Sequence to fold (100 residues):
Amino acid sequence: PEVSRPPRRDGRDAPLVALCGALVRQRSMDEKIAPEVIGTQSDTATLVSDVRGGREESSESRLLKGWRRELVGDELIELLRGRRMVGVNPEGGLKVDGAG
Fold:
């Protein structure tokens, strides 16, 4: 039988993985949860690859499952689709605004 392999990582995704990882870390600080409990860098890289490839509904990323999706996953999808912008709030943390 043919084995399904995950899509190959695109090196051009690295800046997006870093940006999404920063948002995961910010949400972890907001909620006082260790970032690794929310998702790993691998989860973030999978999410980026899957959203860019139009596969978010079948994604294996923990960031798109259950409470993690509610906490940050949907926000990450919106960010990757250009519907959200990340900036710095006056307190020095990240803020996310709607685009346009």
User: Anything to note?
Assistant: Residues 11 and 54 are 18 Å apart (CA to CA). The chain has one domain: 11-98. The mean pLDDT is 90.
